[in-house]
């Protein structure tokens, strides 16, 4: 278990020269909170224990925008995660805005012992392989999200269905498994490494047992977790891990889109922080969107590495500052003249849709939201005529 | 490295009814088919479930009181958690109970139209439906979760519901989450400490 001093070493906190760019960049600080990454880095360098006791670490969005701007290359997001682990060990944990329900769901999966009913959304027109196969499609927990967030017409499962449909269209029958469990992303970012590792080990074994060489994932958070956080836990050769849009981009010429789009649509792309800044995947989703007939992609003022995140990454923070960040971002999307905000992470949808419920702003910030997979699947030429 | 946490148990095994029924300890050691065999054995035996009952202050909790005052006999294998109104019982409460290994959860409140906060129990019903769907997704038997409206006057009905539900859960056997050897690392004390630290800072 790393201590504060070691964290200062491994995250390059020691290199900080106190310029304060991180705090000047931080979306929460800019929204008026007194949260300050700079002070956290300083406290880490001074080995101050209050930092792990006072719970303030759980306010960080972990969106990594400050990492992008730091001239001394301090890994603040990594620092927060390491210190959160220390906090958690000391008994300090985040207050989940959803009453801990989601954490309980994740820990229940970590315990295991039940047979989940997570594949009921699979309709007969979707071809999947229950046992062995070369390509494993990681469904993520969209079925849980749609069941839990009933208040804002959330339909993240549509993207999951669309992904299978797209793979079928390419002649691929992906393996999907009812034994899949939460990837552990949020528990890890809440500091609960123990339960994270239980989930990780289970999932790695599952995918290996199915003989999958390629793992296709559409959720940005699952992708980050599989690509970066599972890495030290792999035994043997890890599968090739791709985001759905990366996978599709490889086969772009094979995808047949219908020639006459029903209506021209202007869309903007919300870079999920996990997909963009954490993994550096900016082009693949844009390539897919640009290839679609009748779709015009316009960028928001802050996009790509400068994109603002949905402000609710790890189920550990939600307050008026988060709401303000979301509202501002939605205004930015509306300012592009786009009538749809496309994203590649179910959580972006959850948090922006929640912000849109504000009765005082209502139509001012309303915008249709969909996953990139849905758009691509909709553009497919109908099979059999 | 381990750090002692006040109030936490390194291995929170539960004590259960004695007799010929397999003990938690015995079940905890078992795995896979062993465990399901043990569970099958537990059914119909003298094994007693651990049930959590959420009750609103004005009706169902008072209903339990009425049962007690009128000396109505019922099975005692539950712990009651009183809330001011059933509208307070959000999915997190129930899911946490299951996560911690409860074999059954009963949610109760005033009859529709009788809520002392006007529409709290309508809210409770919505939350309950949502919770039930999550429980289904997780693969827990639906029979482990139940919603009942019990008024302050219905002492006998309280006893009846408790007896019926206890039998139903007993028939299902121990929750698959009850004796996992991978007990979750979090305890209630954690949240309490976090809240305290926040208040102090
Ligand atoms: S007070 Fe009993 S349900 Fe609201």
Polypeptide structure, described:
The complex is a heterodimer of chains A (385) and B (201). Chain A has 19 helices and seven strands. Chain A has 385 residues and is an alpha/beta fold. Chain A is globular, with a radius of gyration of 21 Å. Chain B has one domain: Rossmann fold (3-Layer(aba) Sandwich), CATH 3.40.50. Helices cover 42% and strands 11% of the residues of chain B. Chain B has helices at 24-29, 33-42, 60-69, 91-99, 120-138, 155-172, 188-200; strands at residues 51-56, 78-83, 104-109, 145-149. A four-stranded parallel sheet of chain B has the order 2-1-3-4, sandwiched between helices. In chain B, helix 5 links the parallel strand 3 (104-109) and strand 4 (145-149). In chain B, helix 3 (60-69) crosses helix 6 (155-172). The chains are: A alpha/beta (385), B alpha/beta (201). The complex binds FE2/S2 (inorganic) cluster.
Question: What's a quick, concise take on this entry?
Answer:
The complex is a heterodimer of chains A (385) and B (201). Chain A is an alpha/beta fold.
């Amino acid at each position: 278990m790393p201590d504060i001093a070691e964290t200062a070493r491994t995250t390059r906190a020691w290199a900080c020269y106190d310029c304060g760019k991180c705090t000047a960049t931080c979306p929460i600080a800019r929204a008026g909170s007194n949260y300050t990454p700079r002070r956290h880095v300083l406290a880490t360098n001074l080995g101050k224990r209050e930092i792990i006791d006072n719970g303030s670490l759980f306010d960080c969005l972990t969106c990594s925008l400050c990492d992008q701007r730091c001239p001394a290359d301090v890994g603040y997001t990594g620092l927060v995660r390491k210190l959160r682990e220390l906090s958690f060990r000391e008994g300090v944990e985040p207050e989940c805005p959803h009453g801990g329900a989601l954490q309980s769901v994740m820990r229940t999966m970590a315990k295991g012992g039940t047979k989940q009913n997570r594949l009921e959304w699979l309709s007969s027109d979707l071809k999947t392989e229950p046992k062995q196969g070369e390509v494993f499609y990681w469904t993520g927990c969209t079925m849980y999200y749609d069941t839990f967030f009933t208040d804002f017409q959330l339909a993240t499962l549509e993207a999951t269905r669309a992904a299978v449909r797209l793979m079928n269209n390419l002649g691929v029958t992906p393996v999907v498994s009812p034994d899949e469990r939460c990837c552990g992303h949020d528990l890890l970012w809440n500091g609960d490494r123990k339960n994270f590792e239980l989930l990780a080990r289970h999932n790695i074994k599952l995918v290996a047992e199915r003989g999958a060489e390629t793992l296709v994932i559409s959720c940005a958070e699952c992708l980050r977790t599989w690509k970066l956080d599972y890495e030290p836990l792999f035994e043997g050769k890890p599968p090739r891990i791709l985001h759905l849009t990366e996978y599709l981009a490889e086969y772009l010429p094979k995808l047949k889109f219908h020639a006459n789009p029903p209506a021209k649509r202007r869309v903007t792309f919300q870079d999920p922080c996990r997909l963009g800044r954490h993994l550096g995947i900016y082009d693949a989703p844009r390539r897919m969107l640009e290839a679609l007939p009748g779709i015009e992609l316009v960028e928001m003022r802050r996009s790509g590495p400068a994109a603002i995140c949905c402000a609710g990454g790890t189920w550990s923070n939600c307050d008026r500052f988060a709401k303000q960040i979301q509202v501002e971002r939605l205004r930015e999307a509306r300012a592009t003249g786009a009538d749809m905000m496309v994203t590649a992470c179910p959580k972006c949808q959850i948090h922006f849709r929640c912000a849109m419920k504000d009765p005082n702003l209502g139509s001012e910030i309303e915008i249709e939201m969909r996953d990139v997979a849905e758009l691509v699947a909709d553009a497919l030429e109908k099979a059999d005529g | 490295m381990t750090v002692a946490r006040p109030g936490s148990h390194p291995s929170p095994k539960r004590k259960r009814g004695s007799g010929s029924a397999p003990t938690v300890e015995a079940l905890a050691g078992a795995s896979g088919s062993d465990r399901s065999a043990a569970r099958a054995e537990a059914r119909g035996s003298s094994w007693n479930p651990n049930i959590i009952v959420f009750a609103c202050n004005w009706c169902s909790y008072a209903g339990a009181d009425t049962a007690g005052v009128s000396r109505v006999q019922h099975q005692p294998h539950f712990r009651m958690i009183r809330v001011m109104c059933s509208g307070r019982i959000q999915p997190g409460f129930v899911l946490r109970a299951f996560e911690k290994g409860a074999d059954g959860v009963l949610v109760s409140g005033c009859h529709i139209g009788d809520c002392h906060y006007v529409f709290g129990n309508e809210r409770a019903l919505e939350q309950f439906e949502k919770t039930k769907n999550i429980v289904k997704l997780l693969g827990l038997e639906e029979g482990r979760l139940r919603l009942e409206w019990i008024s302050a006057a219905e002492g006998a009905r309280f006893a009846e519901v408790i007896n019926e539900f206890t039998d139903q859960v007993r028939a299902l056997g121990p929750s698959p989450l009850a004796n996992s050897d991978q007990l979750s690392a979090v305890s209630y004390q954690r949240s309490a400490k976090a809240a305290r630290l926040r208040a102090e800072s």
